[in-house]
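chain below, 373 aa
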Amino acid sequence: MAMAQALSEEEFHRMQAQLLELRTQNYQLSDDLRKNSAELTGLRQKTQVLERDFGKVQKALSKSKKAQEVEALLGETSMLQGKLHSQEEDFRLQNSTLMTELSKLCTQIEQLEQDNQRLKESSSACRQKTPPCRRKWLPCRSRSEKSVEKVVGMQAGWSALCPLTPCFGAELEVALNTEQEEKRLLRQHIHTLEEDVYKKKQESFQHLQGEKEVLYNDSRTKIDEINQKKEEELNSMNLRIHKLQTDLMTANLTLQSKEKEHELSLHTLRDQAASQSAVSQEQVEIILQESDALRTNLAALEQQQAALSVELQQRREEQEALLAQRDDLTSQIQVMLDDVATQLNQEKCGHKEALSDLKLQHEKEVNTARPHP
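prediction:
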């Protein structure tokens, strides 16, 4: 009976010890469960925060204080794309305006050439008008010379025939002086006409040269202004792209830090799940599923980041195409300006040759009209 009672007490103590051990294990499991529940709540809160951040990235909320978010980059990229389109439209408009100005310049140059041709025709008309005067003057000259010879002969005959000849010789001398004065006035009139024609041609040439230089300077100034504006726009675009690159790098760093945090949390959860009992296995699986969902969200963010990188590369290629187009337009404009300068030099040389020919012709005519001794 005592043995049975002792065994019963021993069993009782053993049972009591087992009960205490079970209670201790229960308390530990309860503590672990509370810790796991707290960690699960924290992970759920982190998941909700990540989902809210991901929603902000997708909806492109400009009010967000985190300028490094990926959706802000998407908004900036779309805005840059719109700006590029608007700049392309402005570039096309400015190109058409420049071509219009160049066509106007060509039209004005053609008008100046027509005016120059008309002046040449008027000069040739004046030259054609001058020979009739010379033709009129030459008969007068021949008649006057014949009259002088006749008067001299008559004077010599009368001097031999009659002593009264000196009286009539004075009248003949007056007539001769009158004829010489008329010849001098006619020669002076021809010289005045030639000088007027020369002055008009010189003034016309100077006027045309001044207008051409003004038009050339105006076109050059407009082209310089357009090039300066394009340079400023390209510099602004480069600064914008540099800012986008900086934002993209910051977003990459943020994503990497978040990935590290999630990996660390995932490893911690896996370690804790391995040490937990089968009772908390379902909760661990739920946590793993949520972690997989977080991985999926992170993968989606990485895909969006890759898409942003591709789009940024496309924007760079478009910028390079715009730069190449700008260079082509600049070279075309330079070629046109060189052609205009060549035409101006050719016309200037032609005018100089025409003036030289006119001076030579004028000197020849003066030498021809000058009486020989």
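The chain has four helices and no strands. Confidence is low (pLDDT under 50) at residues 1-6, 154-168.
thats it, cya
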